[in-house]
Amino acid sequence: MLRARRAAVAAALARAAEGPPGPGCPCGSRLRLPGGAADPDPDPRGWREVVAAAVGALQAGGLVAVPTDTVYGVACLAQDRGAVRNIYSLKGRNGSKPLAICLGDVDHIYRYCHVNVPDELLRDLLPGPVTLVLKRSDELNKDLNPFTSLVGVRIPNHPFIRELARACSGPLALTSANISCQASTLTVSEFQDLWPQLSLIIDGGPVGDVQSPECRLGSTVVDLSVSGKFGIIRPGCALTSTVEILRQKYGLIPESS
Questions:
Q1: For the segment 146-160, what is each residue's pLDDT rounded down to a tens digit?
Q2: What is the reported pTM?
Q3: How much of the chain is helix, strand and coil, in % rounded to 5?
């Protein structure tokens, strides 16, 4: 089974790859995303092959670098214990800092989380540059962030990673493509030191202005696990608009109040 998966990945890589392999990248596994990260009308054939290659790498237990709506990320299957260990090792973490899960659609949140806010609130914020922290359900891999009853949920406003998440049988674990405590990355060349530890790198071009510090802030992380309240865990790039929605439209109050 594993040999067949690897063969499928290799075949998809051969079809989708453009240009020479990236230096330091195993198996020449750097793929360019047709149209780039922000193309609203990508070539469906080219994207289909890249998605297939990424799914194959994930199913084989690999780590895949992906563009998102904020910064570049690294994803693995959240239900795969070994892959989760590997992503912690890649980040240089000891396992005490939680990973978020990434889903393709808001409807999927209810399987992995206990939701205590209106569905409309979820859809006002997602997809978008926001991570919502909710109480996790028993459906989620117990080896993922075993030290907390909460989990952050991301649905990036980026067509490629949403298609990838939909194509997988379970949630993705997602973290930024950088060593912990280092700056977030906006191009694949900025995390080139990590390439040898990755199974596949999806190059969607720059996902932000590399000269702008604001573009490296990452998603705004909001704790919605307490009914009627919200807590800002990380201000991120969408703080003002997120707080406005939570306070003015839904009447939530800050946890410090």
A1: 999 999 999 999 999
A2: 0.88
A3: 35, 20, 45
Pairing, β 100-102 against β 113-114: unpaired
State pLDDT tens for residues 25-55.
444 489 998 876 555 455 656 788 999 999 9
Grouping H, G, I as helix, E, B as strand and the rest as coil, residue 173 is strand
What are the pLDDT digits (tens) for 44-97? 567 889 999 999 999 999 999 999 999 999 999 999 999 999 999 998 876 678
- Taking the CB of residue 44, how many other CB atoms lie within 10 A of it? 11
d(CA 181, CA 154): 20
CA distances from 180 to 9, 94, 152, 191, 232 (A): 29, 10, 17, 12, 20
Q: Give residue for tokens 């899960």.
A: 101
Closest CA to 31 of 56, 8, 54, 6: 54
